[in-house]
Structure formats: structure tokens, C-alpha cells
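This protein record is not my work; I was only asked to verify it. The record follows directly below this note.
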Amino acid sequence: MSARVGLLVPSSNTVAEADFYRRLPAAATLHTARMYLDEVTAEDEAVMLDEHLPPALRDLATTRPDVVVFACTSAGTLRGNAYEEELVRRIGERTRARAISVAAAVRRAIAGREARRIGVVTPYVQALNDAIRGSLEAEGFEVVRIRGMGITANVEIGAVEPERIAEFARETFRSADVELVFVSCTNFRAFEAREQIEQDLDVPVVTSNHAALEAVLELLRATTDGARPG
């Protein structure tokens, strides 16, 4: 499965690369381009999309990736699912690679587990939680509850320990009637907390990086014949 995986991440993200390179097949290589972002707010993410994504995308394209991941869940939902779909199209066109967005990968992972009543935990402030909710509800999921930690400094999001994430999810959904829990953010160490949350709540758990990795592995299998789009 020799292939190059491109990752577009906010510059302050310290978790996504580790989650990916620890779990990608040995023959796959990871190549990252960073989009400037310090504070995780709707305003700063809009600037990231408009000003810092284009040069990062230009640079990443020079690696000739096979798959490219837009690895910011909240920014992917910020302007709605139609915008996200167009964003993925532009990324694929610019890189001539198979492109995915983490937020879209999450929705696909939830649908694949046949869940409708969803509980969501995030590190975000309310404005970004609202965007996450809107993205899920636009696909027909019922968001029973969404709760964020209210953190804006992205480096602080990356520093939250997996044990605290699991505790936060347990506190939020211990008695809730949900069929699945989604833990959002590619800079959240939720991949490491996933199994504990599943044990605590006895429901499937999807995380941003977990869903994205599932989608990447599926696309990598489709590239083993050496074909590239475009």
C-alpha cells in the first residue's frame, strides 16, 4: 500500500500528525502543510480558510499526494456542508489527489454505524458547536446534546489528556439516550480516549481522527492499482 498522504492542518495542531503516522500502513508516508491558526474561533477559522489555506494547499501539491485530508473538523463545518463539498472538490483539483474532509468522514462513519441519535462532545466554544450541530442535522442526524469545553487556544486543546476527555464524555452522557457519541476536533486526543468512552457509555464512539483515518485507508486501498485522478 505504498502511497503519500497529505494532511492540511491548522498550524497549532499537535495531535493529528501523531494519530496518523502511528496508524498508517508502514508503506504510506505522511506529508503535512500547515494553515496559520492560533485561536479556535469562528472568526479566526474563516481567516484560515480564506488566507492561509491557499498557500498551504499550493505547497502540499508539490509532494504529489495520493490522498489529501482537510484536517480541521470545525472549519469544515463553518460554512455549511455545501461549502465543505466544494472545498473538497477544490483541494482534489489543485492536488490531483483523492481529497476528503474530516467532517464529511465523520458523517459517513456515523451513518455506517446506523446511528441517528447522536451525542457530541468538543473542546470548542458555542459558535463552533453550533456549526458542528448544523452539519450533522443537515444530514438527518438528531443531535441529542452537544457540549464543549470552551477552549479557544488550540495548543491548550492539544494538551487535554485522554483521561479528561473520557471523563467529560462520561459526565455528559452517562444517563443520556444516545446511540453514538462523536468526539470532535483533530487536535483533541480523543482517539486515545475512544475505547474508554465506549466502555463507559456502552455505545459506539467516533472521533475526528478515527473517522478520517478510516476514510484514508479506504482511499488508499483504491490507489493500489497506481491510478490517480485527473
